[in-house]
Design goal:
By secondary structure, the chain is mainly alpha-helical. 75% of the residues lie in helices and 0% in strands. Residues 1-14 have low confidence and may be disordered.
Length: 402
């Protein structure tokens, strides 16, 4: 019996072959980046004879890329708004230098010093945002000047020398681990429990959102894809926490990263502020005519970027246990690359928090895997540059097709 041809109605029904094809085509970039990350991890896991997924290496991977992920969250909003920030690496170095002077030389309490550093980051972002938003100076020029200024200020504050060590309580920000209240002999049971709870909470949130969409007649992704993605993500979270629990548990900085990711995902997807940032990057004139105070919005995106750069600077300084004049060198390139690789558009208005995080993980896994394989820094830079170019080319190509 001959099958009937696919109709337009069939194409709109999730679960049909056309429905799957339509959904996959509409979300090609998201699925493509996730599959690319998995492929890269499998490749380096095989090439390094299993070293990549060892608990010690996974811990180092988290610690090495925590500040990149943190800054990528702020950079995403800046790029979505249609701008760029080249100063974040220098701000990381300057904040680390400031923290060292306050805690080590002036012996200021680490909590007070941390607050002052965060305020300094906000002021730095505000100054740059003021020039970009209210004086219409291109963000490329403003932040390029900021990169030079704060690189010089870092040298001046440290007087060309490394300053450290930091107080042990401050070091726990980056080198500490979640304590095991169950006192497991070989396993950090608290970390494993946290992983299971997080996986269950994320699954419940996704199910609740899908139910809410169905109640309002909003078409979601096909059921098979939804359940497959849900099970895979939950399994990966539990597996990751189990591997970490077999070593020293979940790092403190991972908790900071996770909370920030959840916060920014909520802001970008569920709040009026987030929608306005996307509207600003999509069409600034239309957003302004719609009542959005675009200048103020641009200003606050840079303030936010300054605060997150300060957080990253504190995390990096705590990890190294010292402040050096060269701290933060080249960080801006990895952060910007993470956003673009994760799907942010160079023309603004497009980008997701999950994409920026995946992009940062792609960069981190590549750096870590190539270092384990003994690939020189010269070829590492070449490979990362080609990956960035391919990601941006893919974005531009898709935009032209549509």
């Amino acid at each position: 019996m001959r099958s009937s041809p696919t109709t337009a109605a069939d194409a709109a029904v999730p679960g049909t072959r056309s429905g799957y094809a339509t959904h996959l085509k509409a979300n090609l970039r998201d699925y493509g980046m996730l599959l690319s990350l998995i492929a890269i991890m499998v490749f380096f896991q095989v090439m390094t004879d299993g070293t990549l997924m060892q608990p010690l290496n996974l811990t180092n991977l988290v610690l090495q890329n925590s500040y990149i992920v943190i800054m990528a969250l702020g950079m995403l909003l800046v790029i979505v708004a249609g701008h760029i920030d080249l100063s974040v690496g220098s701000v990381v170095g300057f904040i680390g230098a400031m923290a060292a002077v306050l805690m080590v030389q002036f012996e200021l309490n680490f909590v007070v010093a941390t607050v002052l550093c965060l305020v300094a980051g906000a002021v730095i972002g505000g100054i740059q945002g003021w020039f970009v938003a209210f004086f219409r100076v291109p963000s490329f020029i403003v932040t390029l000047a900021g990169m030079l200024v704060f690189k010089g200020l870092s040298l001046a504050v440290l007087q060309g020398q490394s300053v450290g060590p930091f107080p042990p309580s401050f070091q726990l920000l980056s080198s500490g681990f979640i304590p095991d209240v169950f006192h497991g002999a070989q396993w950090r049971i608290s970390s494993l429990v946290i992983g299971v709870v997080v996986a269950a909470a994320l699954a419940a949130a996704e199910l609740r959102q899908r139910t809410r969409q169905a109640a309002h007649g909003i078409e979601g992704e096909p059921a098979a894809l939804f359940w497959l993605k849900l099970v895979v993500f939950a399994a990966l979270i539990v597996a990751f926490s189990a591997v970490m629990a077999s070593y020293r548990g979940l790092p403190n900085v991972l908790v900071v990263m996770t909370l920030l990711m959840l916060l920014y995902d909520f802001v970008t997807r569920r709040t009026t502020l987030g929608r306005r940032v996307y509207a600003l990057g999509g069409n600034e004139k239309a957003a302004r005519l719609s009542g959005v105070k675009t200048q103020r919005l641009v200003f606050w995106t840079f303030v936010n970027m300054g605060v997150l750069a300060a957080v990253a600077g504190l995390v990096f300084a705590a990890r190294l246990n010292t402040a050096t004049p060269k701290a933060g060198l080249g960080f801006e390139l990895d952060v910007i690359a993470a956003c673009f690789i994760g799907g942010a558009s160079a023309s603004g208005g497009v980008g997701k928090v999950q994409g920026a995080v995946i992009g940062a993980l792609v960069m981190g896994v590549m750096n870590n895997g190539m270092s384990i394989l003994g690939i020189g820094i010269d070829y590492q830079q070449v490979i990362k540059g080609l990956v960035l170019l391919a990601a941006v080319f893919f974005d531009v190509y898709n935009r032209r097709k549509t």
